[in-house]
Amino acid sequence: MSCSDRWLALSIGNSRLHWAAFSGNDLQQTWDTPHLSAADVQQLIATQFTKSAFHPSLHDNADGAHMPLWIASVVSQQSLLWQKYDAATFITLEQVPLAGLYPTLGIDRAIAALGAIAIVGRPVLVIDAGTALTFTGVDGARLIGGAILPGLGLQFQTLQQATAALPNALPAALPASEERVAPQLLPPRWALNTTDAIASGIIYTLVAGLQAFVNDWWQQFPASPVLLTGGDRDRLYAYLTATMPAMASKLTVEPQLIFWGMRSVRGESLKAES
Ligand SMILES: Nc1ncnc2c1ncn2[C@@H]1O[C@H](COP(=O)(O)OP(=O)(O)O)[C@@H](O)[C@H]1O
Ligand SMILES: CC(C)(COP(=O)(O)O)[C@@H](O)C(=O)NCCC(=O)O
Ligand SMILES: [K+]
């Protein structure tokens, strides 16, 4: 692969930015950053992403050509900052080859569904445990539909913000090695202190709701793969494993769905050009 095959994928979510460095179709690195200021973006463009604080894999990006940047954003204030970058491509729903998309569907959901199709085929259900938690189901080449609710972090935050006496009781994340096998991370359902009571209410309700959506999906599409992605995927998977191990064992955690989807969109777009 020559340097000119390198490109960046940027998925702009409501909490943060998700980056991937590709060489052609090979995903080489992924990392997350906070949302950027206009000055940050200008500097990244001016230095062609080689700024030391940015990402080590890009330090040798010095071949002169502007690094292609494919952007999928659900936060317009953040994507607008890249509008003057001549090597940026903004992915829109028109570039997603699925029928039944409605105009206000989040591009992240459409692209994650494409990514899921690319790796496991269809029908497939994507659960994105991000700022919002979303269900997005596709069959054949059509969006079946989905649902949106406050994500795990947001449920804890909003309860704290809207009440006078409640703390933010989001349990600390476990070290990665322990995350998938840690039943002790669950609070008792019938809690006897405030922190546990909040965690119990949010977590047991969330996993019960998730089970209801997944079971309904499997009634319509028996044995369809169900993929779990987003920043809270490991935490949620740990809760599911602890509460409903049989269901959890049939779900697949896939951190990079959005990038597989962006790779598909780019591939189709390059094919159409040539
Ligand atoms: N470093 C982090 N910064 C922000 N959120 C994080 C971080 N690590 C884990 N999370 C969890 O990820 C969730 C956000 O998911 P993510 O997929 O990153 O968001 P989005 O794509 O909507 O910006 C939060 O609810 C939070 O609990
Ligand atoms: C539902 C979302 C807020 C999820 O965003 P995220 O949690 O990934 O930051 C985003 O996909 C969005 O703004 N969707 C538009 C509404 C819809 O999908 O119907
Ligand atoms: K997301």
Number of strands: 10
Q: Do you know the CATH architecture of the largest domain?
A: 2-Layer Sandwich
User: What's the helix-strand series?
Assistant: EEEHEHEHEEEHHEHHEH
* Helical residues, percent: 25-40%
The overall pLDDT average reads 91
CATH homology group of the largest domain: ATPase, nucleotide binding domain
CATH C-level name of the largest domain? Alpha Beta
Q: What ions, cofactors and ligands are bound?
A: adenosine-5'-diphosphate, the ligand CC(C)(COP(=O)(O)O)[C@@H](O)C(=O)NCCC(=O)O, potassium ion
Q: Trace the largest sheet across and list its strands.
A: 3-2-1-4-5
Class by SSE composition: alpha/beta
Strand content: 15-25%
Largest sheet: 5 strands, mixed
What do these coordinates show?
ATP binds at residues 11-18, 131. This protein is of the alpha/beta class. It has two domains: 3-90, 2-Layer Sandwich (Nucleotidyltransferase, domain 5), CATH 3.30.420.40; 99-258, Nucleotidyltransferase, domain 5. The protein has eight helices and ten strands. The chain has helices spanning 38-46, 76-80, 107-120, 152-161, 194-220, 233-243, 245-248, 257-273; strands spanning 6-12, 17-23, 26-33, 69-73, 88-90, 124-129, 132-139, 142-150, 226-229, 251-253. The strands form two sheets. It has a five-stranded mixed sheet. A five-stranded mixed sheet has the order 8-7-6-9-10, sandwiched between helices. It is globular and about 60 Å long. The two termini are 19 Å apart. The relative contact order is 0.15. Residues 177-183 have low confidence and may be disordered. It binds adenosine-5'-diphosphate, the ligand CC(C)(COP(=O)(O)O)[C@@H](O)C(=O)NCCC(=O)O and potassium ion.
